[in-house]
Design goal:
With 103 residues, the chain is mainly α. 57% of the residues lie in helices and 0% in strands.
């Protein structure tokens, strides 16, 4: 009896102990039990967005594109808004040099 207890305690001591947090946790379903699955394309896009500052390179190809996308749309919006303001002032009967009134 004593030999059996000594052997069982030696076997228990020799077995690796796994911490509770290291054990596999049961996988929970997203949004309850609705059967929703992750979209791999959305996950890939979000992963790329997270590392944009590491993947972006400023070189001779990206500088013109950056300038194009930063300057052209805002210039078009500025001149369209300016033309609308001049038109509204003319219709309201305001006098003065309307061309130089807004920059």
């Amino acid at each position: 009896m004593a030999l059996r207890q000594a052997i069982s305690s030696a076997v228990r001591a020799a077995q690796p102990r796994v911490a509770m947090h290291a054990q596999q946790q049961p996988r929970r379903a997203m949004s309850g039990n609705t059967g929703v699955h992750k979209n791999k394309f959305v996950e890939e896009w979000s992963g790329r967005r997270e590392v944009t500052e590491k993947a972006f390179r400023l070189d001779s190809k990206t500088v013109p594109q950056l300038g194009l996308w930063l300057v052209v749309p805002f210039s078009i919006m500025f001149y369209a808004i300016k033309a609308e303001q001049v038109t509204q002032d003319t219709m309201a009967g305001k006098n003065g040099d309307l061309a130089d009134r807004y920059f």
